[in-house]
Amino acid sequence: MTSTGYKMPPYLKALTVMIFIIVLVFFLIVGKSLLVPLFMGGFFAILFTPLAMWLESKKVPRILSCVISLLMMTALVGGLLTFVISNVASFTKDFDNVSGRITEYAREFDDWTQETFAYDAALRDKANTDYLKNILTENSSSISDFALKTVGSMTGLVLIPVFMFFFLLYRDHLTQVIIQIYRDKDPELVKMRITSLRKVILNYIVGVVKVMGILAILNITAFSILGIKHAVFFGTLGAILNIIPYVGPFFGAMLPMVYSFLTKDSLFYPAGVLVSYQIIQMIEGNILTPKIVGGNVNLNAFITFLGLIIGGTIWGVAGMILVIPMMAILREIFDLSDATRPFALLLGEEKVENQNSEEEQEAEEVENENEK
Predict the structure, then answer these.
(1) Which terminus of the chain faces fewer neighbouring Cβ atoms within 10 Å, N or C?
(2) Domain extent listing, the chain
């Protein structure tokens, strides 16, 4: 006589899933100050793992290789932040004549509405130029705190290199932990999937950095031709913001457009910025990203867009940056088990998932042959 286990009714399963999602979101919100530096440290560790492995292959002790990688990351991020802050600090000087220019634009708009529609909008009287100038000045100085707000606090800024160091130092130990979790699988197969996952995330990060570099060159060239001041800063910042899909390019275009609108004497310049940025984005979307980044993360467009909204709502800018590689990691982890493979199918592209299923079948065949 066989005993049958208790089967949970469908409505209880749905309720369990909803409770799990609520608890997970609550955990992500409450633990933001710790989780954001933890994940950022993990991604920096993945980015600098090849350097650490190369140093260790040259007989450099692991601790020393981790320290060298940490110093290089600190120098790279510190140099980038210094570049951004130093350029933003000079914006206030360029806004000396903003109030008068806004008044002039308001008067021209009133004249146009009067001649075209015989209606006086009286925008020149409604435009509080001193207030607008103060907003521009205050926001320009507050951008220097962007990195601090992204990671949540000064403590988070300090924790990122600490987590990165420990991830690099104990990367083999973490691999053994995952192998023990999936001990019903072939250890070599699990290790191969972990290595593949690390390469996927590394290729994604390196590909994004390459695209950012090319975009920075194109942006700087276009803005320099148009005669936009701070072309290097706007071009570099637009390339960095491109790491946030959908939303980043919008702000990357708006900043130089607003700046040229307020500091130049013609609408040709903001229009030129918009046109050049659209052309560059077309090149990026149709040539650069497909060729360089490709399908490394293998996430479908709907999940990517939904993840950006959820990540931005929970963790702000940091969530929008981290959500795509995080979902790529989850997709690979879900694909390790038959019970969670439907979730991997939900996150990924159908064509890619079919290919992964074939690869999984081949791996299982190899495993069976080894057992024989």
Answers:
(1) N
(2) 34-95+154-169, 96-135, 202-295, 297-357
